[in-house]
Specification:
Length: about 120
């Protein structure tokens, strides 16, 4: 995955599309989190990565809110993508993020977002 090209792609998106992509990513990341615990409430077997995913989703929900409100104080596009895709010392966390991002991009590109705006 080329971080620079991902930043360029994300930077060219409309605000609504940025929010939509991040939402898809959070959905996929939550799917990745399912691998950190079992069926019972007391069956968390990878608490560190479950917490990592929770904290990342927490940050991203705020960014999505800022995008939808067109807040000038939101983080720059490159900061958001570096937060997600920059190499990590924790390679398990890196894999969780990359897997989720790859699926989000795949789902995002297969949907025409102009339908949401009623134009094309």
């Amino acid at each position: 995955m080329n971080l620079v090209s991902e930043i360029e792609f994300y930077s060219e998106l409309r605000l609504l599309d940025k929010a939509r992509l991040l939402n898809l990513f959070m959905h996929e990341l939550a799917q990745e989190a399912r691998g950190t615990y079992g069926a019972g409430a007391d069956q968390v077997h990878d608490g560190a990565h479950l917490r990592f995913i929770n904290e990342l989703n927490h940050r991203l929900t705020r960014i999505v809110e800022q995008l939808l409100a067109d807040e000038a104080t939101r983080p720059p596009d490159d900061v958001v993508l570096r937060m997600l895709l920059a190499p990590r010392a924790d390679k398990v966390a890196e894999r969780l993020v990359f897997n989720a991002y790859a699926r989000a991009i795949q789902g995002f590109e297969s949907y025409d977002t102009t339908v949401l705006m009623g134009g094309g």
